[in-house]
Write a structure and sequence with these properties.
The chain is an alpha/beta fold and 190 residues long. The protein is built from 7 helices and 7 strands; from the N terminus they run βαβαβαβαβαββαα. It has a 7-stranded parallel β-sheet, with helices on both faces.
Length: 190
């Protein structure tokens, strides 16, 4: 029974944050006939219809999802959005995936939830702090995988990232709106 995991086919995926990355995740999950739930501060009815994804509150997402994947921004409201109370709502077989920002998940509460088998596994591409210290208690567990914030580590993705940065720079130098601004509202105030 070594190296066995849970099947994603026809399971329930809960997506926290339905921006570009959350939408891309939902599109991929459809190929596995997953039931798709999402929670976001802004409801996306256009995407709901297009992808067959259902908007739910955070508690419902946590209670019903087999896999919870985090793709939201780090803000004061999302800092430690997932902590002891939220882990207690999740299925004992749930898998948490965080490749957004480390502080969205309370690492101490995650450690306790994994240690006490309140959830089954976690996959972390981001931690708090980053990089995770070698003596961090999470690294002593056999039900967590931690990678060094390399979810975008492919030649194609890094090339696209470089091109986007160059396109933003060129547009900015020309006095134009960059095609991929992080905070477009700041540019409109000028």
């Amino acid at each position: 029974m070594t190296l066995l995991g849970y099947d994603i086919y026809e399971s329930t995926l809960g997506i926290i944050g339905l921006g570009r990355i959350g939408i891309a995740m939902a599109k991929r999950a459809k190929g596995f006939n997953m039931r798709l739930l999402y929670y976001d501060l802004a409801r996306r009815k256009d995407i709901e219809n297009e992808l067959g994804i259902k908007y739910v509150d955070l508690d419902t997402l946590l209670k019903e999802s087999d896999f919870v994947t985090i793709h939201t921004n780090l803000t004061p409201e999302t800092r430690h959005l997932i902590g002891a109370k939220q882990f207690a709502m999740m299925k004992k077989t749930s898998i948490l995936i965080n490749d957004a920002r480390g502080p969205i998940v309370d690492d101490n509460a995650l450690y306790e939830a994994l240690r006490d088998r309140k959830i089954a596994f976690a996959g972390l591409d981001v931690t708090e702090p980053e990089p995770i210290p070698a003596n961090h208690p999470l690294l002593t567990l056999d039900n967590v995988i931690v990678t060094p914030h390399i979810a975008s580590a492919s030649v194609e993705t890094r090339t696209k990232m470089g091109l986007m940065a160059a396109e933003n720079l060129i547009a900015g130098l020309k006095g134009e709106m960059p095609p991929n601004p992080v905070n477009p509202e700041a540019l409109k105030k000028k």
